[in-house]
Design a protein that fits this description.
By secondary structure, the chain is of the alpha/beta class. The chain is built from 31 helices and 33 strands. α3 crosses α9 and α25 runs parallel beside α26. It starts with a helix and ends with a strand. Bound molecules: 1,4-dihydronicotinamide adenine dinucleotide. The site of 1,4-dihydronicotinamide adenine dinucleotide (NAI) has 26 residues, from α9, α10 and α13.
């Protein structure tokens, strides 16, 4: 046999990694781990422990403490007690601790990699070459932000005590993604690892001790979902950061709604992997190996939906099958293994169940011939073809090595299919045409787009989802902002509850009926309509609400908008999606024109507003209002993204994208300036808006629609629905085509905004029931609002031959 023939037929020999050191580490702890609280190892209050298993064999590795609510409380107290000292350090001192942690991760990298593989079942090749180096990189990168904190984030302060809950698929990497930015920003932490994979977090606790991190800055409380729940509900936690399933993310969103905890969620995905006919097919197949068979497919951003251009489907499928036949499934400590063990029996059962259901729904299933190990939890690489876009395997996260393949004909159809999901975490686009690839990348609703590459990560590039994949970013500058608050906002006083008489009354109620009769009298001079799709519209309800002057006179009536009106407004806003595509320069021009027109109507607007708000406030609102519009006209072509240089031959283009259609509940006390302060930043970056104006003076709508009508704003970019804020809020919150909600109101209204929008996990910004001085530009305008009006999309583009 020639060498060339041998090369092709040669079998792999075993290349096992020696787990001796890791097993000795487990033995040194008598294979039993307590909780890491206040810098010490503490017995769980209830004395309960659970087993963590090696998924490659199903055998027990160690027992680990089951943290109870009492343990969580002790950990939160320790974190709270540690906060003043940690925050009193200079940024440089905190940077030194993060740097020390990075060094220690590198120093113990092999132990950490082997432990990770033992506990999780992932191939040692991945834990050694991807997970652990990225962990170290994350701590180095954030040591840098800690150092630069005062220069780069002036006027901000840490959230305080942060509760962090992580999943089992990248145990130490998710810990690093959470702990590094939290510490860099000056927070203290209570972290709960996943119950299947607690060991590397416990090893990390030892590194914290070795680095001399002050007691209580990092606390690790192991346990199951009930431990996570106790952390979420703890009243003295200022922020929750969660990575895991969408279902649990939704529960956490509900549980935190009535509190002022900040929340970031990194949830599930069903990411499209799009291959165009002009792609380099061999490279695309290698990309697919990383896309769906990396970490056994247990990756939130796995490219689990293959979308192939129809013309190349057949040869592509043949290539994929060939490549699948060479993938090696087996003991993950073997360095020549591609696919290791599934994390747990329950996850394996779930994969089996979902594939069976997909086949029952018409998919054809192909798996390469291979013998799986007798013991442990293994699943072969799997290709499902003829998958209907509505099938469970095309819509739900399988979290296993299973690829669902579909075809498309045109780029337009590819985008439609790609976005046909409730998720929006990541995506891949393969095409040799840079025009096609970037055109498609811009249209995909996902936080990350990898062009001609797959599953690349770097601490400098923010990662996170659109839609039900969650919100908030990890990594990059935007990731740091998740762990800080503007100082003025954190300390702003509470808004006094100001229930307006009209608020309590629904359509048809006694007081309402009375007012309706009254306003039919001829003395009323101003009657406004709703403003939908650039036109004045009568309300569906046929009811109106009375508007009184400061001295109690009836000034006019405003329509009582209802569910149907909001639905019409959402439809109009969607039709105006071209506003997002307009150039930033065009948007700026329209906003400048609005400012000019408000300036021309200055006297008239002041006169109207003065009847309710008094002359002084009315004049101030109009003056500041003109300036506010001017300011966002200025921002429209300046709120740029960034270009990152990750340590690969790639650039990552971080774009600030509009969120989509945003519902806005405007503040009551400052009808014109409050409206402009919230609506203008949203418009400046290309969102379309459905605004509910102040209940106190909804007649402002008439001034506004005259302003918009004369300023070339496309119909539907702003829609105004007057009525009772609390009722319209509910409809906006529950509407699945409203992508985000902004609500300025008292505590009750803000809590309702968060609680009611858990359904499609829409992004919610509220004033947390706090006072915002709308006349003070430091509080009421600028980057903070623009950051909430956008979401960052990172488009990775490789370079080189
Ligand atoms: P999970 O979402 O239940 O677990 C993630 C973390 O949340 C764990 O630490 C868990 O203990 C904790 N947790 C569970 N219930 C909680 C609650 N009510 N309050 C607070 N914390 C809670 O995910 P699980 O059960 O491990 O996996 C189920 C499915 O979720 C997987 O099959 C996969 O589809 C998906 N998943 C997605 C992940 C992602 O990164 N997108 C990660 C892990 C799972």
């Amino acid at each position: 046999m020639s060498i060339a023939e041998k090369f092709v037929s040669m079998e792999y020999g075993p290349a096992p990694e020696d787990p001796k050191e890791a097993l000795a580490w487990l033995d040194r702890h008598q294979r039993k781990f307590k909780l890491f609280i206040g810098g010490e190892w503490q017995q769980p209050a209830a004395g309960d422990y659970f087993d963590t298993l090696d998924p490659s064999t199903g055998e027990k590795l160690a027992s680990v403490a089951q943290g109870s609510a009492a343990d969580v409380d002790a950990a939160v107290k320790a974190a709270r007690a540690a906060a003043p000292k940690w925050q009193a350090f200079t940024p440089h001192i905190r940077a030194r601790y993060l740097y020390a942690l990075a060094r220690l991760v590198q120093k113990h990298s092999r132990l950490l990699a082997v432990l990770e593989t033992l506990d999780n079942g992932k191939p040692i090749r991945e834990s050694r070459d991807i997970d652990i180096p990225l962990v170290a990189r994350h701590f180095y990168y954030h040591a840098g932000w800690a150092q630069l904190l005062e220069q780069e984030f002036p006027g901000h302060e840490p959230c305080g005590v942060v509760g962090q809950i992580i999943p089992w698929n990248f145990p130490l990497l998710m810990l690093a993604w959470k702990i590094a930015p939290a510490l860099a920003a000056g927070n203290t932490v209570v972290l709960k690892p996943a119950e299947f994979t607690p060991l590397t977090a416990l090893a990390f606790a030892e590194l914290c001790q070795e680095a001399g991190l002050p007691a209580g800055v990092v606390n690790i409380v192991t346990g199951d979902g009930s431990t996570g729940e106790a952390l979420v509900k703890h009243p003295d936690v200022d922020k929750i950061a969660f990575t895991g399933s969408t279902e649990v993310g939704r529960a956490i969103r509900g549980a935190t709604a009535a509190s002022h905890k900040r929340l970031s969620l990194e949830l599930g995905g069903k990411s499209p992997f799009i291959i165009f006919e002009d792609a380099d097919l061999d490279s695309a197949v290698e990309g697919l190996v990383d896309g769906i068979w990396f970490n056994q497919g247990q990756v939130c951003c796995a490219g689990s939906r293959l979308l192939m251009q129809e013309s190349i489907a057949e040869p592509l499928i043949a290539k994929i099958r060939n490549r699948m036949s060479t993938l090696r499934v087996g003991p993950p400590l073997d360095k020549a293994i591609d696919i290791g063990a599934i994390v747990a029996r329950v996850q394996l059962d779930r994969i089996h169940r979902m594939v069976e259901q997909g086949v029952a729904e018409g998919a054809t299933c192909w798996q390469p011939e291979m013998t799986l190990p007798q013991r442990g939890f293994y699943y072969p690489p799997t290709l499902l073809c003829n998958v209907q876009p509505t099938s469970i395997v095309a819509q739900q996260e399988i979290f296993g090595p299973v690829l669902a393949a579909m075809t498309f004909r045109t780029p337009h159809e590819a985008v439609e299919l790609a976005n046909n999901t409730v998720y929006g975490l990541a995506s891949c686009v393969w095409s040799e045409s840079v025009n096609v690839a970037l055109h498609v990348a811009a249209q995909i609703k996902a936080g990350v787009v990898w062009v001609n590459c797959a599953n690349l990560f770097d601490a400098a590039c923010g990662f996170g989802g659109y839609r039900e994949s969650g919100y908030g970013r990890e990594g990059g500058r935007e990731g740091m902002l998740e762990y800080m608050e503007p100082t003025w906002f954190k300390h702003a006083p509470k808004l006094a509850s100001d229930p307006l008489p009209a608020q309590a009354a629904g359509p048809g109620s006694e007081s309402q009926k009375k007012d309706t009769t009254e306003i039919s009298a001829p003395a009323i001079d101003r009657t406004v309509k709703l403003y939908i799709g650039g036109k004045q519209a009568r309300p569906d309800s046929g009811y109106s609400m009375p508007v009184h002057s400061a001295d109690g006179r009836m000034l006019g009536e405003a329509p009582l908008g209802n569910r149907k009106d909001i639905r019409n407004a959402v439809e109009a806003a969607h039709k105006a999606a071209g506003w997002a595509k307009a150039t930033a320069h065009n948007r700026a021009q329209v906003l400048y024109y609005c400012a000019e027109n408000l300036s021309q109507r200055r006297e008239e607007t002041i006169r109207h507003l003065a009847e309710v708000m008094g002359e002084k406030q009315a004049a101030a609102e109009v003056e500041h209002g003109i300036e506010r519009i001017f300011s966002y006209a200025a921002w429209a072509d300046k709120f740029d993204g960034a270009v990152h240089n990750p340590p690969f031959r790639n650039i990552a283009i971080a774009m600030n994208e509009a969120i989509g259609t945003v519902g806005v509940i405007c503040p009551n006390a400052v009808p014109l300036l409050g409206f402009l302060s919230l609506v203008m930043p949203l418009l400046a970056v290309g969102n379309t808006v459905i605004a509910v104006p102040s209940e106190k003076y909804p007649l402002i709508t008439a001034d506004l629609y005259q302003l918009f009508d004369t300023s070339d704003l496309p119909g539907g970019a702003v829609n105004i629905v007057t009525g009772y804020s609390s009722q319209l809020l509910k409809t906006l919150a529950e509407h699945d085509d409203v992508d985000a909600l902004w609500c300025a109101g008292d505590d009750t209204l803000c809590a309702a905004a968060k609680a009611m929008s858990t359904g499609n996990l829409k992004q919610v910004w509220t004033n947390e029931g706090r006072v915002i001085d709308w006349f003070d530009p430091k509080q009421s305008e600028g980057r903070w609002y623009l950051e909430h009006a956008t979401q960052v999309k990172n488009i990775w583009v490789p370079y080189g031959e």
